[in-house]
């Protein structure tokens, strides 16, 4: 798993936890955390797909 995908996944998990804590405390600031979780989730998927495409493309032989 690419390092950037792991970092994005870690930030996603932490932002979900922060959103839960924020909503439990009655703060509407949790909406910002939810949006951050969505953004970092998409970033993690992007980096995973890019790494897979890079591995698949480098294995092909042209000639």
Describe the structure.
By secondary structure, the chain is mostly helical. It contains 2 helices and no strands. It has one domain (3-53). The protein has helices spanning 3-24, 30-58. The protein starts with a helix and ends in a 5-residue tail after the last helix. This is Secreted protein. It comes from Streptomyces siamensis.
In short:
By secondary structure, this protein is mainly α. It contains 2 helices and no strands.
Shape: rod-shaped
User: What does the average pLDDT come to?
Assistant: 91
- Radius of gyration using CA atoms only: 17 Å
Distance between the termini: 30 Å
Which stretches are low in confidence, meaning pLDDT under 50 for 5 or more residues running?
none
Protein name: Secreted protein
Keywords: Membrane, Transmembrane, Transmembrane helix
Organism: Streptomyces siamensis
Transmembrane segments: 28-48
């Amino acid at each position: 798993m690419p390092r950037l995908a792991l970092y994005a996944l870690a930030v996603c998990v932490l932002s979900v936890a922060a959103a839960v804590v924020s909503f439990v405390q009655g703060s509407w600031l949790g909406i910002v955390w939810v949006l951050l979780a969505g953004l970092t989730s998409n970033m993690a998927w992007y980096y995973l797909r890019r790494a897979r495409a890079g591995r698949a493309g480098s294995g092909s032989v042209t000639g």
